[in-house]
Amino acid sequence: GRRRQQSQSHSASRDGSIRDVWASNLEEEMQTIRDMLRTYPYVSIHAQDPGSVGTPLGQFRSSEEHAFQTIVCNVNLLKLLQLGITFFNADGQRATPVSTWQFNFKFNLQSDMYSKPVIDILSRQGYRFQHFDKDGIDINVFAELITTSGLVLCDDVTWLSFSNGTDFGHLIHVLTGAVLQQSENEYFELMEIFFPNLYDVKYMMRSCKDLKGTLTEVAETIKVGRHGGSIQAGTESILVGDVFFKMRSMYFEGIIDHERYNHMVYGVGSQ
Q1: Is residue 45 within 8 Å of 238, Cβ to Cβ?
Q2: Is the dihedral of CA 117, 231, 38, 90 positive or negative?
């Protein structure tokens, strides 16, 4: 019956390793996540928003400042659509049987802002927008649950992402419940509070002489396969983590210099 159908719809991948989270199963899944962090303290992330809609106006001292103000402008205008997080242990092994949680947020094409070309691409990738409107997670409920989940504000968790200024901008916006301010210093202070350990794979690529380009291009270069067919936040977060651990062993002899790489975000800040 209906209950069986509903539980099946919570798996977003054929092998069951990606768990779809909607309003109906949010609390239950956050409890599961709390229990995982002791064994799997590395968390890779990919946030999907409905595309870039705003450009900041005015004079900017540098391309980095312009990039940061673009993040602020769009984070404040847009809703988060989907967030993928994948759990790894210190050796880079993904959690089993479920490694990845894909959070789907309330979003309405009639009333929320978006970029049409991006929404068209996402529709082709299999996003069903009426589902987000009807069954999506209320962002304020999510903010409350993630604040007490052990994922944020915790020294034992290490966050991984790829070119992550916008991803963490969205999360800071959600966690503080406030407009993202135009001060880079404040942005990095909040980032350090909520995410004490955070590596940006794109920034780390600067130290790897033959790595350049997008996440997909880097994965191809170092021979990391993509998990699953469709590109959604969950599969992207898996790829971020897989690429990080492969890079760590290939280019960093298994050890990341924490002082050098922690909170260094590609294209943001005067690093």
Answers
A1: no
A2: negative
Helix (H) or strand (E) segment spanning residue 82: strand 82-88
HSE toward the beta carbon, residue 72, CA cutoff 13 A: 21
Helices in the chain by DSSP H: which ranges? 2-8, 26-36, 63-77, 116-124, 129-135, 139-147, 165-176, 184-194, 201-204, 215-221, 233-251, 258-261
- The answer to whether 45 and 83 have CB atoms below 8 angstroms apart is yes
Distance CA 192, CA 81 (A): 24
Quote the mean pLDDT of the chain.
91
Cα 195 from chain centroid? 13
> Does the predicted TM-score (pTM) go above 0.85?
yes
The H or E element spanning position 86 is: strand 82-88
Q: Which residues of 156-183 are buried (b: 16+ CB within 10 A; e: fewer)?
A: ebbbbbbbbbbbbbbbbbbbeeeebeee
10 Å Cβ neighbour count for 95? 18
Helix axes 139-147, 165-176, angle to 10 degrees: 90
Query: What span, in angstroms and rounded, lies between the C-alpha atoms of 101 and 151?
Result: 13
pLDDT per position as a tens digit, 62-105: 888 888 999 999 999 999 999 999 999 999 999 999 999 999 99
Residue type, 193: I
pLDDT tens, 22-63?
999 999 999 999 999 999 999 999 999 999 888 888 889 888
Q: CB of 177 within 8 A of CB of 216?
A: no
102: left (phi over 0), alpha (psi -120 to 50) or beta: beta
- Beta pairing partners, 193: none
> Do residues 21 and 104 touch, judged by C-beta distance below 8 A?
yes
Q: Token digits for 265?
A: 């975000």
Q: Is the CB of residue 268 less than 8 Å from the CB of residue 68?
A: yes
